[in-house]
């Protein structure tokens, strides 16, 4: 079925096909007459069979046959024997149609429908499938139908696994068979069936198995797909975890009315200007979750009732699941020093999109200090005067480095409970890394490089909480740079991955992050203190990432990059000043995440490509966010 | 030769061609000449078809072997002063077999069922699904007289009794349990390189320089590990001699030839839908092939007379030209051309030289220079060497059994489903090239000792035991020190030997004859070389005729029939 060259039709073929078309047209006309007049006589039904035999794609004819079957089954003299004969007839018609076209959606669907009526021998279906799958071992229709039949007859996953394995041994270039294997194993993992209780037992064996295919023929894609699935099974923890939060645990939040805070005891990472009498609490999970509300997350403080808190998901789509959730805590306008305790998941209800329950309750607390507003300071004018010019930045001073270091660590939630359970994951990844380094020493292989990059990245991500550094980031960056050159067709994909790894590297340690932290000092400004700006400019980023480490950022400079999207930026709830100057943003739709940034006051999107391409009519952001001030220089 | 039944005289008495002996090459020539509308008389002194390519009942094999092992009976007094215009040149037979050694460990069982066995005299032999013999069978429609089954697997054996399956295809490499990942990668890349080269892809072309270099050097250059090299050289390319020891290697495989062998092997796998492996074996034994070509010839008008020895060659007194033959019945039959079984030789009168016109025809197609001998062994057992699989080939590469082993030893196990033995039994054919009988015996015994249990109570057992003692000890020492590891069938009993026949067969002609002689069974696994030689002989005697012209095809849908029954 695969790899057959197409031949130009010969004249006699063309004549035959036009004759066929004529016959088909005649049949079709007759058929529609029967169909519209709801005629289900034997002749009429037979005509539809003839039509389907020539053209199995005729959906109307399949539907007509379904109506005809219903018609016969509802006849008063209907008995089990007649039902069986009607349904057997249908199966025969489908079989003939499938002989004509193996890949007819309508035919397979009709067969499923007939089978769902009961009365048919399921064993017979399995035999038929064996025959079909021998003839075309990769036909996904047959595999889909096989899953349906196996389920109907309650055939054990182990038996089906054996069947898929035999098919793989016959020819391992069979994506359908590998896919079926992954589906069956997933089902067994879920059921925790005997022997499949633990991923850590099964996955290493599966890795061993897929290595045989990948090493034998690295050019064959089907094996790599399965490997990717295995990697996903290895890396993804079932139950969602809280990755980071703002404010961080043990931090001090200073809320000031004007732009300045007094007293250097407070870290600029957690000092916040607020003019709305509230501040956000941001929860950043490692995967999208739903069910975050005032009963699953409780906030204890002296000045606000937990029940009043409204948790909102922050996602591009308006779904009720998101990685990032935010709630705004109202503060009194008087002097205040109070402790806030946030407990996440002590009562069940937070569920990942894959259906796993948040099962590792965690708690963090921070202190809030409120300095009341000074009436006379005019914030608007200050805001307008901010200008992200080179001369206005200076490298962040060393004088308060200590406090920064402390607060940086506070941003990350440590999930100690994962350490022991993850050992096998580490081992599996380490083994895979070694294995693919070996493969790459043998052959130059793009997908091998990509896989190694993914493995190293996954390994780093898994070991980060313990090692506090990304050991392999340089190597991963090199691999992606390599791939950009080797495989120009997928340049953008590699570029995006490269950007995210680069950002993870930058945010992985205090030292590297500090190199990008600058103090904003406007010569014209009369303000006493200077806000901190994170400058990730000129890094040739095509995507933003590492948001979990950047929840604290209020001023962000992303200018002179190659950003085409700012997906995920909605997580940075404290952002008040953002420069996207000199990027490759193409449409206003790309700016969608900005809608969710309620504190954003200054935005620079000059020198992008908005409007360069086609006209974007989906939305205009400016009108919705009245406070936003497009500052075009 | 005394109890020849009286034959009615053969009529007519003049033919275009007389062929003596019904071995495979003679049978093919008879069929080809008949197809080319020549009148052919095909004679055989034996009561069966196939001569040295036949399959015989168990009881008949020893007598056949020994009848061809003695020096020719002293010729009758040359009656060269025949009254008519011919001189008579006496025929003699050349001894073909030596060191025949038959051992019976289960006399009752085997004697009573002798006829249930069809033992190949020239085993082990298989047909590659894409080799010349299959092409010839299909082209001539001869396949309609035969049925085949697939030989299911190839293994490489070691001195510990392990049989390692040969990763001979992509699926087999994937499935293989003995190769490491790196080895799998290297082997598959090598296969792809060869496939690309054969498909004429420019970027993977193997250079002419490489093609002319020894295959083993090329494999080294490709960085293939020793284990894989051994698989490719001996179990896929079927090299006979140690390719890595130029001192003993008489047939150093060139890369070009190695690649051709790989191509043949590759084309053989999966050629027929119901044949899983690369090889086929005919039901009822290899002797069926000769017989099928004889039937093909008979259909085209060839006249067959079995049990008819030929006593002398008739030569024109004046010119020295061949005229005809004198049969044992006393009748003289004349023909323009003569083809002889290689065991016949013509005794020239003492002091005379071959007649000139014939001398010119010194056949360039006779076998190559001195090639030594081939040792063959046939063993019968009641258990398969490997559970769950009955028909398979095993190759023991040079030095795999003992250090002095310089040639590959091949073993073919055939089960009763191919109608060669009693149900539940297995026939093992073993062969190895050798310089002399002793060396040959040592090679065959080395395999037998590794794989089989040889019972102690037998008539000729003493000989086997004493001979195997020396090599056996070396082999067994190693066995004991590392009997673990590998997918060996350890723990399972070795099959017990019920019956065996060991013999050496000449590969040389001794002297070059002035008559067209067909080749004798060679040391190869298939018939490719023999068919090449046969084709050349046919061209030599009928240069103007086509060898089975395409139009002679009687059954245009042969391809469907060719697939073996399973």
From TrEMBL, chain A:
<comment type="similarity">
    <text>Belongs to the protein prenyltransferase subunit alpha family.</text>
</comment>
<dbReference type="GO" id="GO:0097354">
    <property type="term" value="P:prenylation"/>
</dbReference>
<dbReference type="InterPro" id="IPR002088">
    <property type="entry name" value="Prenyl_trans_a"/>
</dbReference>
<protein>
    <recommendedName>
        <fullName>Geranylgeranyl transferase type-2 subunit alpha</fullName>
        <ecNumber>2.5.1.60</ecNumber>
    </recommendedName>
</protein>
<feature type="region of interest" description="Disordered">
    <location>
        <begin position="1"/>
        <end position="20"/>
    </location>
</feature>
<dbReference type="Pfam" id="PF01239">
    <property type="entry name" value="PPTA"/>
</dbReference>
<dbReference type="InterPro" id="IPR032675">
    <property type="entry name" value="LRR_dom_sf"/>
</dbReference>
<keyword id="KW-0677">Repeat</keyword>
<dbReference type="GO" id="GO:0004663">
    <property type="term" value="F:Rab geranylgeranyltransferase activity"/>
</dbReference>
<dbReference type="GO" id="GO:0005968">
    <property type="term" value="C:Rab-protein geranylgeranyltransferase complex"/>
</dbReference>
<dbReference type="InterPro" id="IPR001611">
    <property type="entry name" value="Leu-rich_rpt"/>
</dbReference>
<comment type="function">
    <text>Catalyzes the transfer of a geranyl-geranyl moiety from geranyl-geranyl pyrophosphate to cysteines occuring in specific C-terminal amino acid sequences.</text>
</comment>
<keyword id="KW-0808">Transferase</keyword>
<keyword id="KW-0637">Prenyltransferase</keyword>
UniProtKB/TrEMBL annotation, chain B:
<keyword id="KW-0963">Cytoplasm</keyword>
<dbReference type="Pfam" id="PF00996">
    <property type="entry name" value="GDI"/>
</dbReference>
<dbReference type="GO" id="GO:0005092">
    <property type="term" value="F:GDP-dissociation inhibitor activity"/>
</dbReference>
<dbReference type="GO" id="GO:0005096">
    <property type="term" value="F:GTPase activator activity"/>
</dbReference>
<protein>
    <recommendedName>
        <fullName>Rab escort protein 1</fullName>
    </recommendedName>
</protein>
<dbReference type="InterPro" id="IPR036188">
    <property type="entry name" value="FAD/NAD-bd_sf"/>
</dbReference>
<dbReference type="GO" id="GO:0006886">
    <property type="term" value="P:intracellular protein transport"/>
</dbReference>
<dbReference type="GO" id="GO:0007264">
    <property type="term" value="P:small GTPase-mediated signal transduction"/>
</dbReference>
<dbReference type="GO" id="GO:0005968">
    <property type="term" value="C:Rab-protein geranylgeranyltransferase complex"/>
</dbReference>
<dbReference type="GO" id="GO:0005634">
    <property type="term" value="C:nucleus"/>
</dbReference>
<dbReference type="InterPro" id="IPR018203">
    <property type="entry name" value="GDP_dissociation_inhibitor"/>
</dbReference>
<dbReference type="GO" id="GO:0005829">
    <property type="term" value="C:cytosol"/>
</dbReference>
<dbReference type="InterPro" id="IPR001738">
    <property type="entry name" value="Rab_escort"/>
</dbReference>
<keyword id="KW-0343">GTPase activation</keyword>
<comment type="similarity">
    <text>Belongs to the Rab GDI family.</text>
</comment>
<feature type="region of interest" description="Disordered">
    <location>
        <begin position="463"/>
        <end position="494"/>
    </location>
</feature>
<dbReference type="GO" id="GO:0016192">
    <property type="term" value="P:vesicle-mediated transport"/>
</dbReference>
<feature type="compositionally biased region" description="Acidic residues">
    <location>
        <begin position="556"/>
        <end position="566"/>
    </location>
</feature>
<comment type="function">
    <text>Substrate-binding subunit of the Rab geranylgeranyltransferase (GGTase) complex. Binds unprenylated Rab proteins.</text>
</comment>
<feature type="region of interest" description="Disordered">
    <location>
        <begin position="547"/>
        <end position="566"/>
    </location>
</feature>
């Amino acid at each position: 079925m695969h790899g057959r060259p197409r031949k130009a039709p010969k004249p006699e073929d063309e004549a035959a096909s036009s004759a066929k078309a004529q016959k088909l047209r005649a049949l079709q006309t007759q058929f529609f007459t029967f169909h519209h007049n709801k005629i289900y006589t034997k002749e009429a039904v037979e005509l539809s069979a003839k039509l389907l035999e020539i053209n199995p794609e005729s959906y109307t004819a399949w539907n007509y046959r379904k109506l005809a079957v219903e018609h016969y089954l509802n006849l008063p003299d209907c008995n089990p024997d007649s039902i069986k004969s009607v349904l057997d007839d249908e199966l025969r018609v489908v079989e003939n149609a499938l002989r004509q076209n193996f890949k007819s959606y309508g035919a397979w669907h009709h067969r499923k429908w007939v089978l769902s009526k009961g009365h048919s021998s399921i064993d017979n279906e399995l035999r038929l499938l064996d025959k079909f799958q021998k003839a075309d071992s990769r036909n996904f229709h047959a595999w889909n139908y096989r899953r349906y039949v196996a389920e109907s007859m309650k055939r054990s996953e182990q038996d089906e696994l054996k069947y898929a394995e035999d098919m793989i041994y016959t020819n391992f270039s069979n994506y359908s068979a590998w896919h079926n294997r992954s589906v069956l194993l997933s089902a067994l993992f879920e059921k925790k069936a005997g022997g499949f209780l633990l991923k850590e037992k099964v996955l290493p064996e599966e890795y061993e198995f897929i290595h045989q295919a990948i090493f034998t023929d690295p050019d064959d894609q089907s094996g790599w797909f399965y490997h990717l699935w295995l990697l996903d099974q290895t890396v993804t923890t079932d139950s969602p975890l809280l990755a980071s939060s703002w404010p961080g645990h043990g931090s001090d939040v200073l809320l000031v009315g004007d732009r300045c805070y007094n007293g250097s005891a407070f870290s600029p990472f957690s000092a916040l200007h607020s003019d709305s009498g509230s501040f956000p609490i941001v929860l950043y999970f490692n995967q999208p979750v739903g069910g975050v509300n005032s009963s699953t997350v409780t906030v204890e403080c002296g000045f606000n009732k937990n029940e009043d808190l409204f948790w909102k998901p922050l996602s591009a789509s308006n779904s009720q699941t998101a990685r990032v959730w935010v709630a705004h805590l109202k503060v009194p306008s008087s002097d205040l020093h109070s402790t806030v305790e946030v407990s996440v998941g002590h009562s069940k209800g937070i569920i990942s999109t894959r259906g796993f329950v948040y099962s590792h309750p965690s708690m963090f607390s921070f202190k809030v200090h409120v300095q009341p507003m000074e009436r006379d300071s005019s914030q608007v004018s200050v805001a307008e005067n901010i200008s992200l010019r080179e001369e206005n930045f200076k490298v962040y001073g060393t004088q308060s480095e200590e406090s920064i270091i402390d607060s940086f660590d506070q941003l990350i939630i440590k999930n100690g409970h994962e350490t022991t359970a993850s050992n096998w994951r580490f081992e599996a990844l380490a083994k895979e890394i070694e294995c693919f380094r070996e493969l790459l020493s043998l052959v130059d292989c793009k997908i091998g490089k990509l896989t190694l990059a993914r493995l190293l990245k996954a390994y780093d991500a898994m070991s980060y909480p313990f090692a506090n550094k990304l050991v392999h980031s340089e190597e991963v960056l090199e691999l992606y740079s390599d791939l950009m050159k080797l495989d120009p067709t997928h340049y953008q994909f590699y570029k995006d991955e490269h950007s995210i790894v680069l950002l993870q590297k930058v945010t992985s340690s205090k030292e590297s992050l500090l190199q990008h932290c600058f103090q904003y000092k406007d010569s014209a400004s009369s303000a006493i203190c200077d806000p901190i700006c994170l400058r990730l400019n000129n890094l040739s980023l095509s995507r933003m990432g590492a948001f979990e480490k950047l929840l604290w950022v209020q001023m962000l400079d992303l200018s002179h990059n190659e950003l085409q999207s700012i997906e995920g930026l909605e997580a940075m709830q404290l952002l008040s000043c953002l420069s996207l100057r000199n990027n490759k943003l193409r449409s206003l739709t790309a700016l969608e995440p900005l809608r969710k940034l309620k504190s954003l006051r200054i935005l620079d999107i000059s020198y992008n490509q908005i409007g360069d391409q086609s006209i974007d009519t989906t939305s205009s952001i400016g009108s919705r966010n009245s406070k936003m001030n497009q500052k075009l220089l | 030769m005394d109890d020849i039944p009286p034959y009615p005289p053969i009529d007519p008495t003049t033919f275009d061609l007389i062929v003596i002996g019904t071995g495979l090459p003679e049978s093919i020539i008879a069929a080809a000449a008949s197809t080319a509308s020549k009148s052919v008389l095909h004679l055989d002194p034996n009561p069966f078809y196939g001569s040295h390519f036949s399959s015989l009942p168990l009881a008949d094999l020893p007598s056949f072997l020994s009848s061809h092992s003695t020096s020719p009976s002293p010729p009758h007094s040359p009656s060269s002063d025949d009254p008519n215009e011919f001189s008579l040149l006496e025929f003699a037979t050349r001894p073909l077999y030596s060191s025949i050694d038959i051992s019976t460990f289960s006399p009752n069982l085997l004697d009573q069922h002798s006829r249930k066995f069809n033992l190949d005299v020239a085993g082990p032999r298989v047909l590659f699904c894409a080799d010349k013999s299959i092409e010839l069978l299909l082209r001539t429609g001869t396949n309609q007289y035969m049925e085949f089954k697939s030989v299911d697997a190839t293994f490489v054996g070691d001195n510990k009794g392990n049989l390692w399956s040969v990763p001979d295809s992509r699926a087999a490499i994937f499935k293989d349990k003995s190769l490491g990942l790196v080895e799998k990668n290297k082997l598959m890349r090598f296969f792809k390189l060869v496939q690309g080269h054969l498909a004429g892809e420019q970027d993977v072309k193997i250079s002419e320089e490489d093609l002319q270099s020894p295959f083993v050097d090329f494999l080294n250059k490709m960085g293939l590990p020793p284990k894989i090299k051994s698989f490719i050289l001996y179990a896929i390319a079927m090299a006979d001699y140690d390719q890595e020891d130029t001192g003993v290697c008489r047939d150093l495989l060139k890369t070009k030839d190695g690649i051709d062998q790989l191509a043949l092997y590759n084309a053989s796998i999966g050629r027929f839908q119901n044949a899983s492996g690369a090889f086929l074996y005919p039901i009822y034994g290899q002797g069926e092939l000769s017989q099928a070509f004889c039937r093909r010839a008979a259909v085209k008008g060839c006249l067959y007379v079995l049990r008819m020895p030929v006593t002398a060659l008739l030569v024109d007194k004046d010119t020295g030209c061949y005229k005809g033959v004198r049969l044992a019945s006393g009748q003289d039959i004349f023909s323009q051309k003569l083809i002889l079984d290689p065991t016949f030789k013509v005794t020239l009168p003492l002091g005379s030289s071959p007649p000139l016109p014939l001398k010119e025809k010194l056949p360039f197609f006779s076998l190559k220079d001195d090639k030594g001998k081939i040792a063959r062994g046939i063993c019968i057992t009641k258990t398969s060497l490997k559970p769950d699989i009955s028909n398979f080939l095993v190759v023991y590469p040079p030095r795999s059994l003992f250090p002095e082993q310089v040639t590959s030893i091949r073993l073919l196990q055939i089960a009763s489903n191919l109608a060669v033995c009693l149900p539940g039994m297995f026939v093992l054919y073993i062969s190895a090239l050798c310089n002399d009988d002793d060396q040959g015996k040592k090679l065959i015994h080395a395999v037998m000792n590794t794989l089989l249990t040889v019972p102690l109570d037998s008539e000729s057992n003493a000989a086997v035991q004493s001979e195997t003692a020396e090599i056996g000890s070396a082999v067994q020492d190693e066995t004991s020190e590392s009997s673990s590891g590998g997918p060996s069938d350890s723990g399972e009993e070795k099959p017990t030997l019920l019956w065996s026949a060991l013999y050496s067969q000449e590969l040389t002609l001794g002297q070059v004859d002035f008559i067209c002689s067909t080749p004798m069974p060679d040391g190869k696994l298939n018939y490719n070389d023999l068919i090449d030689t046969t084709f050349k002989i046919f061209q030599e005697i009928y240069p103007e005729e086509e060898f089975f012209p395409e139009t002679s095809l009687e059954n245009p849908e042969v391809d469907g029939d060719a697939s073996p029954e399973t």
